[in-house]
Each structure stands twice: as structure tokens, then as C-alpha cells.
Amino acid sequence: MNADLLHSRVRHLRGVLFPAAAALAFVLAAPGLDALEPGALSTRGDQAEARERWPTTVVAGATWLARFNDAVRIPLVLQLSPLEVPFRIRQNWSLYTDGAPRAMRVEISVDGRLVSRSEDPAYPWLAAQLRNRRIRPMVATFAEGGVWRRQADTAPPNTRGLARWVGQQAERDFPGCQQVVIAAMWGAWPGKTMTEHHRVVVTPPGWVP
Amino acid sequence: MRSSWSRWADWCSAEEDARSLAWTRIAVCTVILLDMLRIFQLGLVQVIFVPFEQGGLVGRSTDAWVTDDLFGPSFGGPVAFAVTVTCMAMGAAGVFVRPALVVGALAYAQLGHCYPAGDRAIDRLLRTVLLVLAIGGPKAYPAWRRLSAEAKDQLRASAWPARLIRWLLVLVYLSAGAAKLVEQPEWLFPSGRPVLYRILADPLTGSLDPVRAQHWGWLLKLLGQGTVGMELTAPLLLTPLAPLWGLGAVTMHLGIAALMDLGMFSWGMLALYPVVYVPAWLRLRDHRRLLATQKRATLTGED
Fold this sequence. Notes:
heterodimer; A: 4-stranded antiparallel β-sheet; 7 helices; flat; B: two-stranded antiparallel sheet
């Protein structure tokens, strides 16, 4: 095959593949639709509730889009999802849609002495690690307590690992310590007064809750 | 007369200065590399990429975590970490770029499968971009080889990867803006405490003092509305106004970096902006050169 013919074919191929890739990204991400739960606005009750917050025409349009989402986009996304798995590139970008409903802090006490409190320079123990973006979601999940409640007071798997690691760090930094308490403190904004909502207690030698 | 299809195929096969994609690759790989090195610096590699049973944090991994089958559960995560670090260093330095980006993205994904709780949207976005760069990015010239300015001007690359990255940015911002409105209309119509207050003053994530910040409600409402407005106008990234729109986005990301502990999120987003600003800078430079040449020609003519 001569170079001109090859160049021509590659040119035509790009003319097909580029819009296909852009369209695929659009279907997978689908701004607005990606934030909808399957079955959203599918009942009259849901639609009536939406009309209380939004104009009727907006709700009518949103209902049509939600049906399209359920009937076309979600099945397509499910078909394509195996392609996303190896590289873990799921195209969903619902970034920071809401803030915390209340002020929450995580406090850590070693043998009754407070050593760590979220965003409090007076109690900085493990602050760099606990606020690292990889561990912070685990700390936030513990503070929110939702998973905790669903599992009937059994520490969820990630929290068990977090609590054990905190215990091991306490053993290293406070030799001979006998008890570490990790407590989720809740309070109404701005959080001047906070009370303990739930806690996990770990003790040596295993430090496992 | 050329057909519409022919013009479209030409547009899809167009080339542009290779430096916008080269700088994007260097920036993205460097940001990921620094994020990984920070984990190492904090002594967390053996903690967050090792399962609970082997002494780590991870309670649940996904079924797609396969490096534990290859290297054992104690070493699967750390090996994927080491491969990611190596590949990102190679990608940033321009050494065996395509294999480094593909293998690096695979290893980086394995870290996410090992520890899903710590794998966020920015990780998924940067892995997507790594793949786009691996498929369509320019061939790297050795980073240590100093090229003349003229030689650099000759380096060309396909334009479609930069266009696709700009399209991805549009989708990311539009999705973020639309999701805010779908899930929390108070972004636009605040009634109580502004959403941005509850994000930036959250002691678990933000660094604003919640007591002091409650006096800045009007400002935070305005900034929240500005954020949504900026995200919903992201299609401007596909127009000549992109550098102007980008100023708002860059400011927002710098603000997030200053006021929230989101790690590499802001820097990862900013790492994609060479596809916006390098072409703009080159246009500006060429325009200045043209003006200088015209000025010289005028002066010579006067002489």
C-alpha cells in the first residue's frame, strides 16, 4: 500500500473515530443524567414533589430526560462498563454536590488524653496522615456514621483497618499506652458545641475493634 | 469542491504544535508522581495498599484487583505502587512514553481497585488522559536533548488528543455543575447556610474557621453561584474564548487548593490546562513576532 493511500485511509478513520470517542465520552458522562438515580422521577409522587421545587416545564423536561436515561443511557453504560474496569476510568463527574449537613470532627484520645482533633492545630497528632486524600474519605465515612449504623454497631471493614492502624501508631508514639478512643463529634453549624455521636475503642495487643 | 466529509476528515486529522500535549503529559505525570511520593513520605504505602488481613487498612477491594494474585496480597499493592511511580517518572521525563503511560495507567488503576475508598474522580480523569496521551500524544524526544527554538517550532502532533482532552474538561465541569443543581438547588438559590460554607468550613475537609466564616455568608453565596455559573459555561472551552474562561477555572482551582485538603485534585485539574494555554501562548508569541517584523520592515523602509 503506498503512503498516500495509507494516509487517506487513516484520515477517514480519524474522521469516524474522533467523533465516536467524543460521543462515547458524552454518553458515559452525560452531564446532569449521571447524577440521576435509576428510576428517578418515574412515579407521580416523585414528579409532584419535584414540582414543589421547580417550574412545571422544567419538571416535564427532566421527566423526559429521566425516562431516556433509564431506557437508553443506563443500559448502554452497563454494556460499556467492562471496558472501563481494567483502567478504572468510569466517566462520572458529580463532584462536590453538597456540603456536610452538620459540623463533624474526629477526636482521638490515648489513655484519656486528647491528642488529635480534625482541623485543630492544638491537637495535631497524625494530622498529615488522616487528612491525606487517600485516608480522609475513610475518616469522613467514620465521622458520618452511616455505614456504621447500617451494620448494626459492627465496625465496617475499612473502619476496623483504620482503628487498628491508629492503635499501632499510638503504641509507637506513646509507648505503653493501653487504650485508644476514636470518637465522632457532631454539632450544629458552626460547631461551637459538639457532642460525641459514636466511638470506637481499641486496646493492645491486637488494636482491632 | 471539497465535500463536507473531506473537510471533516481533514479537521480530525489536523496537526498542531506538539508542545501543548507534551506539557500536558509532563504535568499530569508529575502531579501523579508527587501524589505517590507524598504517600511514601507519610509512610502509608504498606498501610493503604495492603489488605486488612495482611496488616493494612483495606477492608474491601474490587474483583478487578489482580496484582494480589500475581505477587501475593502483601506485595500486590506495593508492587503496583512502585510500577506506577516508575512509569510516571518515565512519562514525565519522556522515556519510552507510550508503554510507560499504558503500563502506568494499568498499575495506577490496580491501586484504585486495591483501595477503592481512596481512588477519587481526579484519579479516573487523569487515567483517562494518560490513555488519550498514550494513543495520540506526540512521540517524545529525549528530554535531555536540547533543541533549538526553531527545531521546537517544527515539532507537530495530531490535534485530536488535545481536542478530546478539552472535550473531557467540558464534560467534567458541565457534569459537576448539573449535578450540583440536580442534587442541591441551594447552590443557586441559597436559603440557609451557603453550600460553599458547609464545604469549606467542614473540619474534615476544609480549612476555613467555621465560626469566622459564618460572617462571610454573602461572599460564599456569591462564590457558590459563580462556581455553578462557571461550570455550566464550560462549553466556552471549545471556543476562542477558552483562555479567558480558563482564568476563572484556574482561579477556582487555586482557591480550592488553598482552602481545602483535597490533595492533588486542583493540581491534577490544572495539569490539563496546557491544552488551553500553550496554543494561546504560541499564538500570542507569533503575533508579537509578526508585529516586531512589521515594525522592523517599516523602520528599514523609512531609512
